[in-house]
Amino acid sequence: xxxLMKGIGNWLDNFKETxxxxxxIGEDTIKLTxxxxxxxxxxxxxxSIVETPRGGVEDGKLKAPKMVAEILNPxxxxxxxxxxxxxxxxxxEEVITRAIEIPNIPKEELGEAVKWxxxxxxxxxxEELILDYEILGRGExxxxxxxxxxxxxxxxxxxxxxxxxxKLQGVAIEIEPIAIARTVGKLYETDTIGVIDMGTKxxxxxxxxxxxxxxxxxxxxxxxxITHDVADSFELRLEEAEEYKKENNLxxxxxxxLVLRSLTTDIYRSLDxxxxxxxxxxxxxxxxxxxxxxxxxxxxxxxxxxxxxVEKLDLSNRLTSNLRSEEDLLQLAPFLGVSIGLALRxxxxx
Length: 350
Ligand SMILES: Nc1ncnc2c1ncn2[C@@H]1O[C@H](COP(=O)(O)OP(=O)(O)OP(=O)(O)O)[C@@H](O)[C@H]1O
Ligand SMILES: [Mg+2]
Description:
five-stranded mixed sheet; binds adenosine-5'-triphosphate; 34% helix
């Protein structure tokens, strides 16, 4: 897993100091953290959460770096962080992954073979992509099972612009599922874990096996769709629906939500697809994260539907900080998985 996106990582190859800020630019809020780690513990040295300016981010993509820089400038002026180095992530939705098989060739030739396969399988000119790959395993005949990861180069321009405006030193740009995988991998020992990160407009479903990201898929349903659904069903204004959603267990309300139904089906399909392709690898646990994971009863609902242990990302006793009260930290923890994973990158720097 550590090697994933090294293409992008090395591309910005500036890594010198030890600490790095994890910058997660979400559709709803922007989260920044700086961490220290001990055994299975994470100490937050720096933390800021600010609302994303309207139009700053669109469909998971940083659209207006200037607007976002204006909002973030005061955060850095207040000296909340001890470093100028930063790692950020792009939405899983923007990443193209392909699982392929390559025959037994010398390892040095894999890079070329991956390029060739990528140009055959991805309908975007290869010069416009940043490519990386991960060897997932090898067949008895020595063939390679490979996960190709590709991102459009152009997508990265706005992030570089943002770094420049904020006078930050960009260390790496990753994808969100990899960042979250690092946080979950640090805190849980379970062999195979499913991670569901429910944000504002999308939900990322990922599967990790022994610290390696094996699978990731983005579903175009997020917290905002649930709010709209509640607003329509109960004839509420959007702000009222947002409150209602946060305060009530929608699964106990006798409220039949089409949105929740299709989200559940989409997650199930992804898990099922993974299980069919990876017989013998059993998903032992599913971790919920992102703001949507706070939805009351979601863990129980998914657990009943899938027959697997589903729990919220549990940071109690694992995340400490003298910046906020313990209770505040627990409230905030579901939002911080990606940002903390990015800040943890120093340990796994390639
Ligand atoms: N207590 C709560 N119960 C249910 N949903 C909540 C709660 N608190 C926040 N949310 C929802 O979480 C979502 C925001 O989550 P998050 O901050 O993880 O998204 P984001 O990272 O900004 O967005 P994205 O990852 O899609 O770019 C919103 O849709 C919000 O309504
Ligand atoms: Mg997010």
